[in-house]
Amino acid sequence: MMQDNILGTEKISRLFLKFSIPAILSLTITGVQSMIDGVFLGNFVGTNAMASVNIAAPFMQLMIGMNLIIGIGGVSYIGRSLGEGEIKRAQDIFKSACLFMIGLSLVILCLGFTFSEQLARFLGANDVLLADTSTYIKVLALFAPFIGLSFILGIFVRCIGKPNVYLVSSIVSLFANIILNYVLIKQLQLGIVGAPIATGLSFATSFVIVAIPFMKKSTVLNFFTGTFNAKYTTQLLYNGSSEGVSSLAAAISTFVFNMAFMQIAGEEGVSAFTAISYISLFASLIVSGVSAGIGPVISYNYGAKLHDRVKAMMNLSCKMAIIMGTLLFMLIFLFGKSLIMLFVSDNQAVIDLALHGSKIYAFTFFFNGLNILFSGYFTSIGDALSSIIVAICRGMIFILLGIMTLPQFIGISGVWMTVPVAEILTILIVVFLFKKDSIKTTNKLMKA
Asked: What is the pTM of this model?
């Protein structure tokens, strides 16, 4: 198959560009979808509406987390299977992942729609933000199947050598979201109801586009071949579990930060954090795009025992992560206020809080790229445990330790400092795990 030969033989730098650039753009555009809601609500409805979206963010993060568990776990398993020449197994994994995703999405739909108010309360919405947060969750839940399938099919399309399909679907989805937000929020004045409808319909548009390549029976992965196998579902869930842990950690840390800022600075604090979290999300998505893009290449070559190609791809990716992190750091310091005012333009107190926080938070970008890359690397080679350890450390353990200690000594600056400190400590864990993996791989090669 042509895509197999490309993954195993084409020049690494060319593969990096061919797979990473569409993945970066696709993932960034997808992540920007929730930012678009914030931009329109913050400017046309008010900062409380924008804060409500951020309170509801853990629900979306958990939804995306489950999608990523299936998608990233599946692409790792499929990639290694194709590299080993196990075509039937790859097809069964694909079918199992799609059917499982449909069932899971229907469960999320029912829970989100039925218990939206309870979820909003649990996530920290006070009496001011409760109604808007509940409404956002309820409406967004209706689109769970489209969101889930657009994610995993967009990831799987890289396994058949067509990374640009997801890019096209993401671009179309982005413009659909902007236009729908403008029409529903600005023109029809639907407020908080319009935002999740716009986002949900944009994901539905993406789903239609990414589903097209899998409608052809001649494609190695398609909707018509393969059978459901619970054993493969269990394996891909294990492979992708670190992505789920990352999203769970993101949801927990968002919840913890919202609570901390609500206690220290009220709704204005949450609004300030929302603006910074949007900027941070954009930065993280760039490196996550690199990780997602190179994932199938790493998996295939690891399965084919082409370890020199795996090493070359990781070296190139790490260099790019360091360069991008430095550029993002400079961007925050030079243009931080302009970026913040994209989300908040009429509340000087929120702008001042966010501007102060951005100067501290910016140090995150020096380290988080490498942590994201190596977490993805461990997943791609089937070492789910190491990937889980990295995800838990950077997104949960060190975050919780930081948020409980740093604000006690330096107040609100300690809250902002928590994430950079967590990323620095995680780098030490990554170095240890990577050295351990390198020794294990060397020993296997020597025995062979």
From this structure: 0.68
